[in-house]
Amino acid sequence: MKNLLENISNPSDLRKLNPAQLTQLAKELRAFIIDIVATKEGHLGASLGVVEITIAIHYLFDTPNDLLVWDVGHQAYGHKILTGRKDNFHTNRQFGGIAGFPSRKESKFDAFGVGHSSTSISAALGMAIASNLKGETEKQHIAVIGDASIASGMAFEALNHAGVSNANLLIILNDNAIGIDPSVGALKEYLTKVKSDKRLAVHNIIKALNFDYSGPIDGHNLPKVLSELKRLKSVKGPKFLHVITTKGKGLQQAEEDQVTYHAPGKFDKISGERIKKEESLYTKYQDVFGKTIVELAKQNDKIIGITPAMLTGSSLKYMMQEFPKRTFDVGIAEQHAVTLAAGMAAQGLIPFCNIYSTFLQRAYDQVIHDVALQNLPVIFCLDRAGLVGEDGATHHGVFDLAYLRCIPNLIIFAPRNEIELRNILYTAQLGLKNPIAIRYPRGKGTIIDWLKPFKKIEIGKGVQLKQGTKTAILSIGTIAKNVSEAIELSKKTDEIAHFDMRFVKPLDEKLLHTIFSEYKAIITIEDGTIKGGFGSTILEFASENNYQHKIKTIGIPDEFIEHGSISKLQHKLGLNIENLKITIENLI
Fold first, then answer.
1. Are 356 and 438 in contact (CB under 8 A)?
2. Options 139, 362, 442, 568, the catalytic residue
3. Block mean pLDDT (10 aa), the chain, length 588
4. What is each CA distance from 95 to 99, 259, 389, 409, in whole angstroms?
5. Nearby residues of 238 by Cβ (< 8 Å), 6 or more positions away
């Protein structure tokens, strides 16, 4: 039997097949995804689950003239392979290669760039309304969204609007009962009931919002999916197709362990067994948080853990195992998570609200209006701060220092290592008069024996890490390690002092006055944007106090940073040890 996928480079090739051949193509597409991801790594389970849907959409609709929007984009690998990126799919998520998520600049088939959840319905509706205004009433607009993403507030807002429009919009609900962690909430429970009793689908919230609702249907039954999509093509107005799929379909381990095989790392493509990485003596920052909060929660019964759908990614799963009644996975609902925490803090509880740095952007008003304005002592734990690597521009946590430091009442702390993280978590739960944001990176730390007795950290106090005679380097967070090593390698090491400022807000002004009185030149180094970030704070301090020093700020430039390994991105941006050494020596 000849390989069909070999001869398909875009959807026009796909449409030359007869429908009976599509089941074979689905098998080949799954095998292709498994073959590449097994060695190159990436998001696996989501793409395996939507193979039939992907083929059916591109077979029946006139993409890219008909517009297809994938929510989040974890599930879009099959889409990429069928739309001109098969031959370079092996570069997926690698530096200089194709992006792990749909990207408008990468392909005309990627109608809308994604990476964060629950945007697809709004975007597709906007496109559909635009088509109506331009008189393109036959153009189709499709949004594919998962059951975890549709429970988010933004998706509901878009559904509410779409239902009173005459937009030619088709929403396909890819219902597999899981995002990265299992889906949660009342909507998830309803969708689960519909699967077992289809009579419940007769009267449902989607129909009540004026959608032509159909389903649920088996998303792996290609003839059924093709038949229903063909019918819906001729239906005008907002339409909603409920499709049941299995995340990880076609690889037994991925079906059985859907959380791990969301992004499993390297694995054997035949057996599906994950290839064990060499055991590290170091601990992930997320696990330092996860294990420390359990330790603290045992001593302090007011501690609450909250996360928006990142129970595993944040390692709050450890607290869920020990204290299920005090741990809340609220689903993909960052705004709700923040205000929920504010409500708890208002009643004297101590909420640790753990949100990825890039996802807290989605709850900015809540941080200001519901937390900081009322000076409620919520403890924000911002995981994945700084460069995160292969997920790229949508996920780098490089804006947090800039967007948070302008907010009154908010304390901002960045630990340089695991012990500092552990101690600030301890300090925060002792009782603060203000909310605090604690930012820390993805990946492992550098200290083997980090489980030390707790020590209280003085708020607003920086520390000197190294003496020097001429130039002072001020760093914030874990970039301190690269800075320290760069200074050690420098021929001018005796001239360079190094300070870990620790707090972006409040600044250690006493220490800063000492630094400005003793050193002629100041260099600030951070792994966040230099526009409005930590370096800007030091420039403002110098201006306010009429210091005329030479000050150089080093950090993330004013552009969106692409995907690639953290080491390659640091090298490109001059934040690796060797480049920092050269830059520092040139500035002295």
1. no
2. 362
3. 92 97 97 94 94 98 98 96 97 96 97 97 98 96 95 95 96 87 81 74 80 94 97 95 94 91 91 88 97 98 97 97 98 97 98 98 98 98 98 97 98 98 98 98 97 98 97 98 97 96 98 97 98 98 97 98 97 98 93
4. 9, 26, 9, 39
5. 162, 163, 165, 167, 169, 171, 210, 211, 212
Can you tell me which residue has the tokens 């899981």? 178
CA dihedral 466, 470, 471, 472 (to 10 degrees): 40
Backbone angles phi, psi at 408, to 5 degrees: -60, 155
User: Which residue out of 30, 85, 139, 247 is catalytically annotated?
Assistant: 247
Helix (H) or strand (E) holding 37: helix 22-40
pLDDT digits (tens, 9 = 90+) for 300-331: 999 999 999 999 999 999 999 999 999 999 99
Query: Does 247 participate in catalysis according to the annotation?
Result: yes
Catalytic one among 41, 52, 228, 334? 334
Q: Report angle CA 54, 60, 64 to the nearest 5 degrees.
A: 75
Buried b (16+ CB within 10 A) or exposed e, 525-543: bbbbbbebbbbbbbbebbe
Per the listing, tokens 């359990």 go with 294
Residue whose token pair is 């962690």: 181
Angle at alpha carbon of residue 151, lines to 150 and 154, rounded to 5°: 70
Diameter of the chain by CA atoms?
Answer: 79
Helix (H) or strand (E) holding 154: helix 153-162
Residue 334: active-site member: yes
Q: Which amino acid is at 345?
A: A
Q: What is the pTM of this model?
A: 0.95
Q: Are 60 and 234 in contact (CB under 8 A)?
A: no
The Cβ-side half-sphere exposure at 75, using a 13 Å CA radius, reads: 34
